[in-house]
Design goal:
- Two copies of one chain form a homodimer.
- Chain A is of the alpha/beta class and 237 residues long.
- Chain A has two domains: 73 residues, 60s Ribosomal Protein L30, Chain: A (2-Layer Sandwich); 143 residues, Alpha/beta knot.
- Chain A has seven helices and eleven strands.
- In chain A, α2 links the parallel β2 and β3.
- In chain A, α1 runs parallel beside α2.
- Chain A is elongated.
- The model of chain A has no long low-confidence stretch (mean pLDDT 96).
- Chains A and B meet through α4 and α7 of A and α4 and α7 of B.
């Protein structure tokens, strides 16, 4: 066993809560569950072991994987899983992240997506690793609820999924989010943390602007994406 | 010079962008500007030095403070400032954070507050340090735009600022955010990251709920606060 690297076939859910999410929502990808010698016996462990039996996932005892994979002192369970996607579908609403660069941000966006029931995520590369243990952790397990597709250009995505309503979020957007109507199936499109979307997106669909004061240059990416999800879905709740 | 500790009288804006924010928006608190030997000569440096002269802030050259204070390799300017507040005012709208525990989250909320022009922040202790360099960095300098007051209980805050409209954000809130009207001057009140607000807040003002799916337990704290700020202020932009 080695430290996680992006090219690995498997990744890891660090901690018992994330491992439960893995076994409940993506059991088909679960490969193994590691248990540390300091893991307390009791109801949680019993439930975990039962779920492993149900999902046919082998359990391995020992502390070595924890020294290699986890920096946290209170991590006593690790779920290993195959890095595999359920693809996004054409009928669903999408969030499209163009060149996102931060694992914590991507995970936070995943959590908001699961929260607002927009469960199809499109990633345009180059991008941060959607299965990095840091992404998984920041998502609080929401990554296991999502359908994900990865494209190496926005053009390839829009060819594969044509006839959708595209809403790029740009500072030069013509429509204010407060007044925008999102027609399904829609794609909410966000750019990189530092650079935003390139100007070519001004020609795409309906550009949306989240109005804010001049005190800041821009909103934090997961904040902008989550506000957009709230505004786009609020009729659904 | 030592590593930053909470009890210190001064804190630090790490990086040239944050230091500009300090000198522009809170020059009265700026104490010193440190410049690394690797800082490139040119327009940015000239502008910075000019601003230091205008604000009467001494400049010190040398690499030692950077080895002590910054973990980032590309940090070549540090602004030292006195940890001091402009107090919140009764006429303004407030964000009230009850026992926030994460510096990055607090900084992100500050950035959204500056973005949505709700610039008065109340902190109920125990709480993370609002002047921790990590908070300052996550705020992207927004901390220098804010008025901040700290109380050691919510009761003391509500005694000091009575007659306001209080909106605690609670999972058991009766009013959905999508339908809520916020009457000024209002206080948007948020609990700790892990535990939320205690049940005693069910008796306070009008409880607000941000509806989300059962896929997640709760929204991330800065996400919830920023969505609330967007919803409360959208008539203002």
């Amino acid at each position: 066993m080695k430290r996680y690297r992006r090219e690995d076939e498997n990744s890891y859910a660090l901690g018992i809560t994330l491992t439960f999410e893995l076994l409940k929502y993506a059991p088909e990808y679960a490969r193994k569950v590691y248990i540390h010698s300091k893991m307390q016996e009791g109801e949680s462990l019993d439930k975990l072991l039962m779920l492993c039996v149900e999902c046919n996932v082998p359990v391995e005892y020992g502390d070595k994987p924890f020294n290699i994979l986890s920096q946290k002192e209170n991590c006593f369970v690790i779920g290993e899983f195959k890095k595999s996607h359920r693809d996004v579908t054409g009928n669903a609403n999408h969030v499209v992240l163009v060149n996102p660069s931060n694992a914590g941000n991507m995970g936070t966006i995943m959590r908001s997506m699961a929260g607002f029931n927009v469960t199809d995520l499109v990633i345009i590369t180059p991008a941060v690793d959607e299965f990095d243990p840091k992404t998984v952790r920041a998502s609080m397990g929401a990554v296991f609820h999502l359908n994900i597709s990865v494209f190496d250009s926005f053009e390839k995505y829009s060819e594969a999924f044509h006839g959708r309503n595209l809403y790029p979020f740009v500072l030069k957007g013509k429509k204010s989010l407060s007044e925008a109507e999102f027609v399904k199936p829609y794609s909410l499109i966000f750019g990189n943390e530092a650079t935003g979307l390139p100007d070519s997106f001004l020609e795409v669909g309906t550009g949306i602007l989240i109005r804010h004061s001049a005190n800041i240059d821009s909103l934090n990416l997961p904040i902008a994406a989550s506000i957009a999800l709230f505004a786009a879905t609020k009729g659904d709740f």
